[in-house]
Amino acid sequence: MLSLLKFTIKWAVLSLLILTLGNWVHWNGRTLSEIVKTTMAPFENKHLLETAQKWGEGLTRDAKQGLQNKLSSSSSQMTSTPMEQEVPRSERQKLRTLIRELSSSDTTD
């Protein structure tokens, strides 16, 4: 536990040192931070971020439509389900007979 604390403190001090030196050290009239920023600027790909954003929006839109379709189809199924699940009269009669037989066999044992 103590070694983890030492490790964390060392990395925090190192990070603070690098950030401080990056803003204090000047080279050709600019700080190291400015040099790194201007060097990395051309490599930032904004087109990639825009493409990812459009893809995410499309995915969200599709998910919303799918949810709406599912909710509308489930509500239509709920209205038709009781009629589809209705047990025919002959089957109900067979089930009653079977229940009576099982009830009488349980009391006999």
Account of the protein in words:
By secondary structure, the protein is mainly α. It has a domain of about 45 residues. Helix content is about 85%, strand content about 5%. The chain contains four helices and two strands. Strands 1-2 form a two-stranded antiparallel ribbon. A hairpin with a 2-residue loop joins strand 1 and strand 2. The chain starts with a helix and ends with a helix.
Brief summary:
With 109 residues, the chain is mainly alpha-helical.
From the structure above, extract its key features.
mainly alpha, 4 helices, two-stranded antiparallel sheet, single chain, 109 residues
Largest sheet: 2 strands, antiparallel
Order of helices and strands: HEEHHH
Average pLDDT score? 83
Tally of strands: 2
Q: Per DSSP, what share of the residues sits in E-state strands of 2 or more residues?
A: under 5%
How far the N terminus sits from the C terminus, by CA atoms, comes to 67 Å
Output the structural class. mainly alpha
Q: Supply the number of helical segments.
A: 4
Helix fraction by DSSP (H/I, runs of at least 4): over 70%
Q: Over the alpha carbons, how many angstroms does the gyration radius reach?
A: 36 Å
Low-confidence stretches: none
- The largest beta-sheet arranges its strands as 1-2
